[in-house]
Input
Amino acid sequence: MNVLMPKPYAELHQSYIKRYLDTRVPHILGKGKRIVQGKHRDGSEFPIYLDVNMWETAGRMFFSGIITRVPTETAPKQQLNAGVSDIQMHVDRIGM
Output
């Protein structure tokens, strides 16, 4: 997954997983698709829809993600909304 993520998110990805495994509090799991930045092979970034889910089978935990490219005409407004959602998630996490 880290190959598809821009630097700040790729560096934090393992900590996001660890936080979920430690607390079982979902921050993006099962919340539906949201807009985040994806990364092309050449390093350029582009907006994508990301939907992440988790399931357990035979005592094992699995994660899956569905990625869809955001149409360019939709991206600016959706990215703004995603930024607001990210801010709200952080405010909720610290209990403000």
